Amino acid sequence: MSLHRVPPPPALEIVCEGVPGRLNEDAWLAMQSGHLGERVLIAAIDGATTRLTPPLLQRYLNTLPQRLTPAAYAARLVRDALARLVAEGIFTDLRSLLIEANADLGRALIERFGALALDRMGFPEEIYDTLAHDPRLVRLALPACVVTLAEYDPSTNDLRWAHAGDTALVVLYEDGRVEVPTAAHTVEFDGALSRAALKLRGEYPDLPFRALAEQPEVRKLNLNNGLRHNYVDKHGLPQPGQGVGVLDGLPELRYFVQTGALSLDRAVFAGVLTDGLLWPESAGEVFAPDEDSAAALAQERRAFMAEQIRTRGLAGYLALLRQAERDDADHEQYPRLKTHDDATGVLLRFDTRQAVAPAEDTAEPGEAD
Fold it and tell me: Residue 297's pLDDT band (boundaries 50, 70, 90)?
């Protein structure tokens, strides 16, 4: 009779860094789970910028001891709801945990508004009249966040995950393989915004990409993308292939939560990251001529990111990322809407080697050796 060897517990690394001078709208969670506390649950939570802040919500936020944005409010409320739900142990399915945390957010918002409807949010008449033609536009005003939740079971050495939005689960294996299973479920909007900005280059040839992304055409497109949160068509039918899942209190989230499981045999680390901690896409990847070229560059980028996390640790990797962002202040090398974003990650490390910072001349993806 063979005995199953339980692997040693993983080491835990956490970073959660905001942008200087601005409230950090991310949140994270790391706690024991399971009836006996035998499992480890981790989450990365990213508050989504609200396109239109309801006056009634703003008045409430102004009364809090810590002044929160709607995005930070949503992220913190969902974090606290998840922690409570996990501790209670009633829901063990990760999908159910996200749906229940979303319901908690919805109940809190209904307490503020009376209903999740535009006419209950205290908007001035001119704003309400602009939006009233489409009830779906309530999504522009709801505080929201995106989440990747993962649970490690040492008895099976497996990882279960549930996901909504553009946060990510990243797993590196000893053979160099990098898995980002959440990437397949992310409807890509930022790339579309970048391509829209690039089209303006002919009209504004002297503007850097950073300024192009701030033009009214791109800002309007970004505003309208809020409609894609838990997207439903004009008949009210959920369309997961055309939208992105967010926790915003709306029940349609249940159609957008993605789940999966994978083995961590011979894994180096498994981590959940907000999008501000992901290595940004290069101009070559964003504007690639075909899907195969873009996929190859994405694989190269993820491999670089995973290797830097392995060797530097999360904190060292974040320092490298911030330097790369500062060096690309015009957003030309890495087309993006923000120079820096809040960056949060929770990492389970299974290797016994200590993270060591490599030499300063580490080549970024796409650079010559």
Answer: very high
User: Helix %, strand %, coil % for the chain, to 5?
Assistant: 40, 20, 40
> Rounded to whole angstroms, how far apart are CA atoms 171 and 270?
4
206-265: pLDDT as tens digits: 788 888 878 887 777 777 788 899 999 999 999 998 899 999 999 999 999 999 999 999
What are the angstrom distances between the C-alpha of 363 and each of 86, 105, 294, 320, 368?
42, 43, 20, 11, 7
Per DSSP, 132 falls in state: T
Contact yes or no for 244/165 (Cβ under 8 A): yes
Half-sphere exposure of 22 (CA within 13 A, CB side): 15
Q: Is 194 helix (H, G, I), strand (E, B) or coil?
A: helix
> Where are the alpha helices (H) located in the chain, listed in sequence order?
55-62, 70-88, 94-113, 125-131, 190-199, 209-212, 216-224, 283-286, 291-327
* pTM across the whole model: 0.91
